## 1
Amino acid sequence: MISKLIKQCECKSLRKAMKKVTLTELSNNIERLLDEVLETGIPLEINKNGKLLKIVPIEKKDKLKNLTFKSDAIQGNPDDLVNISWEQEINIDLS
């Protein structure tokens, strides 16, 4: 519930901050406007014949940032894991 409210607030604040341009303005200044969107992260709203379009920066997400450190994941010396022999632990009979 709280995250939904936060998203709604973020959307409302983005709408207020969003720069609005006409198609002609976009055509004349496209490189500058795109650079501005990338630098600020604020979407650009384009009005084309009464229809609205948005240019929104998309950030590539770093999946490794979701990992959390777990200090107790390995009990003992991690270097000992390199020399473990699993042949006696498993029996693979493919016949």
## 2
Amino acid sequence: MQNQTQAGQHRFKGHDAVLARAQDAKKEISIRLIDGTYVSGVIVARDRYTVSLRIPSKGVWIYYKSAICGFSVAE
């Protein structure tokens, strides 16, 4: 869900806007998955369907956005 701006940049809306800001700021994010588990890490990549997190001690893991129930970003 992206809108093209005049400058050629994308402006994100809703949850994707929060994910984009967390990725740009390299802030840690805690994600709750549909099975009730939580994962925490730093977003290293996002696309239309997935979010890739760098999780300390586990490396980079990829999660489908459809499997995410909620998230919180460290202040």
